[in-house]
Design goal:
The protein is α+β, with helices and mostly antiparallel strands. The protein contains 15 helices and 21 strands. The strands form seven sheets. It has a five-stranded antiparallel beta sheet with strand order 19-6-8-7-21, with helices on one face.
């Protein structure tokens, strides 16, 4: 941990103050004092602001990814349109956080290569000061509009889409699993699979995943059927066989050609799949989880736990970079977010592919889920449910509620509100809602909500419902604060015609109720026909 004398001796340096102020323009600043942050919003306008904060015990400085007209006008109560009016742009910051130093550098290397592959020249990088790196592309490199929307207003959904697309692009093109040679290729760098297992302490199954090439769903390898088929090139006779290298045709005695057939039991029906490295198993790309007014450690700020400088450096040096280079006494300065060298619109290709990938992936997912939904409809019990009185069972819940129910890392308080109102609107009794919410809380990681908080919220909403005499609905599907920014929304094929999670559950019940009588009539007719046949036979 840093001492006051260490922070003062560093932040009083004029060269450090000048370097930090260059990155403070139009940025909201967050000053950290050991384990807590000072008041927000804040700015750095003068050299002395940095020293004065250090005298009050500041250990590090953080700045927003967004660029603001006047950061001091920000407050938590501003609506989306008011934030858009204040925002003049945002920088793309890819926060690569990995506990394994060598693979942190390799991951940063492939992310930089992915950006270069999309014709972006203005890519800069800095050491976070801890165990990862920050990759940056300045706002000046962005196009003005994407899908008819001003790019400056596409925050935080813009960087989320880009980060998700880059993860897909990297796993498809830049990180290749070659099990035959016991290698994983990170771009042009070959890494022995055994070395990766040794350094991470993980198993093979933890680091790789098998995905369907059609719908991108993961496939259980135990359900993959692999067999060999031998075909004669002369008479086209074929037969299945073992793993023999050679087999003669029983008809014309020629050597038959061997084909390995893999059949994956994917729910979309596809038999094409590939083995991929699961980047999320060792790396956390924080950009995917960002929200409005998100911050990152400023260039040249100290890291309170390591005492190292969050130092920019040449991207060509990424694989050779060592933490000792970030020593406060002898670090070197380098450009980060170089706005003057940016070429307007050079990131257009990246934006187009990122937004196209999301829409195409969503449509593919909807098609797959629609097929699955039809199968599930036939498997659900044919029992009729009364929408006015009967509690709607869990199998009819929408994807967003199922996602919340599996447990969360963030957004637990907002999720609790959604759950309470949803279950109440689905005719669940108070005791059942309480039991459900307490069990849900046990699945939340790494931290759980306090039980007293959950019971207090349940009492409050019970009293509110009693006074209003009307059930309070959960937030609508297009509610940005509750469903979209939190990423609770996880639509399937039915969701596109749904405005509220409760509407989804009732729609599925309605579909079940309208489908069940037909099945019973069909069964009764079949029984009647069989009975008639028996009576005719006896006669």
């Amino acid at each position: 941990m840093l001492t006051l004398s260490q922070t003062l001796s560093y932040y009083k340096r004029k060269d450090v103050q000048k370097l930090m102020l260059e990155h403070a323009a139009n940025k909201e600043i967050g000053v950290r004092f050991d384990e807590s942050f000072g008041k927000r919003p804040d700015i750095l306008a003068y050299d002395n602001d940095i020293l004065e904060s250090a005298k009050r015990g500041a250990t590090s400085f953080h700045c927003s990814e967004e660029l603001w007209n006047n950061p001091l006008q920000l407050n938590p109560n501003l609506r989306r349109n008011e934030l858009d009016d204040l925002r003049i742009g945002w920088d793309l910051i890819l926060d690569i956080d990995c506990p394994y130093w060598n693979f942190s550098k390799l991951t940063t290397y492939v992310f930089i290569k992915a950006l270069k592959d999309h014709n972006i020249d203005n890519v800069t990088v800095k050491f976070s000061g801890g165990k990862g790196f920050h990759i940056a592309v300045p706002f000046e490199s962005f196009p003005n509009k994407v899908v008819g929307i001003d790019v400056k207003n596409l925050f935080p959904e813009g960087p989320r889409k880009i980060a998700e697309y880059l993860l897909y692009y990297i796993t498809q093109n830049l990180i290749i699993v070659d099990k035959t040679k016991n290698l994983i290729k990170f771009g042009k760098i070959d890494v022995k699979f055994d070395k990766l297992l040794e350094e991470t302490g993980k198993k093979d199954s933890d680091l790789t995943v098998t995905r369907c090439e059609n719908c991108r769903n993961t496939i259980d390898e135990k359900k993959i059927i692999s067999k060999s088929e031998y075909i004669c090139p002369n008479c086209e006779y074929s037969e299945e066989g073992d793993d023999s290298k050679f087999k003669s045709c029983p008809k014309c005695k020629r050597i038959m050609e061997k084909y390995v057939i893999n059949k994956a039991l994917c729910r979309c029906g596809s038999s094409k799949f590939r083995r991929e490295f699961d980047l999320s198993s060792i790396v956390n790309v924080d950009t995917i989880l960002i929200s409005s007014r998100h911050m990152f450690r400023m260039p040249y700020s100290l890291h309170e736990k390591t005492g190292l400088v969050s130092m920019p450096f040449d991207i060509k040096h990424i694989l050779k970079f060592e933490k000792t280079e970030a020593d406060p006494k002898n670090f070197k300065s380098y450009k980060f977010l170089d706005r003057k060298s940016a070429h307007a619109g050079e990131a257009m290709t990246l934006f187009q592919k990122a937004f196209d990938y999301k829409s195409e992936n969503l449509q593919r997912s909807r098609d797959v889920v629609r097929k699955t939904f039809e199968k599930e409809k036939n498997m659900i019990s044919s029992q009729n449910l009364n929408l006015d009185n009967t509690a709607i069972p869990e199998e009819f819940f929408p994807p967003c509620i199922k996602k919340i129910s599996r447990g969360l890392e963030d957004g637990k308080k907002r999720a609790l509100l959604v759950l309470i109102n949803f279950l109440s609107s689905c005719n669940w009794e108070h005791d059942k809602i309480e039991e459900y919410c307490l069990k849900w809380n046990e699945r939340n990681k790494p931290d759980q909500l306090k039980e007293t908080y959950i019971r207090g919220q349940l009492r409050y909403y019970k009293n509110q419902a009693a006074n209003n005499k009307e059930k309070m609905m959960p937030p609508n599907c297009d509610n940005r604060g509750y469903m979209i920014d939190t990423q609770f929304c996880n639509p399937d094929g039915l969701c596109r015609n749904i405005k509220n999670p409760v509407q989804y559950a009732k729609k599925r019940v309605w579909m079940q109720n309208n489908d069940a009588p037909k099945k019973r009539i069909k069964k009764e007719n079949t029984k009647g026909e069989k009975k008639s046949e028996k009576e005719t036979t006896k006669e």
